[in-house]
Amino acid sequence: xxxxxxxxxxxxxxxxxxxxxxxxxxxxxxxxxxxxxxxxxxxxxxxxxxxxxxxxxxxxxxxxxxxxxxxxxxxxxxxxxxxxxxxxxxxxxxxxxxxxxxxxxxxxxxxxxxxxxxxxxxxxxxxxxxxxxxxxxxxxxxxxxxxxxxxxxxxxxxxxxxxxxxxxxxxxxxxxxxxxxxxxxxxxxxxxxxxxxxxxxxxxxxxxxxxxxxxxxxxxxxxxxxxxxxxxxxxxxxx
Length: 239
Hints:
Elements: H1 6-26, H2 32-41, H3 44-58, H4 62-85, H5 92-96, H6 101-115, H7 122-134, H8 144-154, H9 159-178, H10 185-188, H11 197-202, H12 214-238
Helix pairs in contact: 1-2, 1-3, 1-12, 3-6, 3-8, 4-6, 4-12, 6-7, 6-8, 8-9
């Protein structure tokens, strides 16, 4: 079976995310199409967690990586808020209590910084990581994002442990986070589409495709960050 490169899997994730947001905005809830598009769309978040863990492991400059992530999280926030709520926030507190997905990745990055810091002992790492994850209650997708990222980072060399930990975390944490927003368990279940991300991850070749030109390198590095707020803005305008 042909393996997929990192770029190819990220493109799959971007398409899935777009379908998810199209379903959220344009497709009536309770329909089969609404369910299927959301089921597919939920694969994006774990895929991005996986490649955040990969990026953290292989980047030559974690500081620049973090600043880039934080910068686009901040840029995306006004667009995300207006897309979700349909209006500008009436207070700063309301604005920062509902943060976009990129802030979830920021928290995940901070968790990895803590857990890989050799100057901290086991207890300090546990306490600081727990505090960081607690802030995920204010971001899109909630606690599961840093948990997934930690699993992908530390179990990358043992696929069976990674698989087991990912499935267990998904089955346990997703209902805790999202079930309260649904009228029934059946309506909630498309969130388990996140488990389908394991298919793309399974077929990952490990090839990070070093770009042949500076332009291609910039496109590969920046495209998802730019696309995230841009597609939300376009969907909101069309709506």
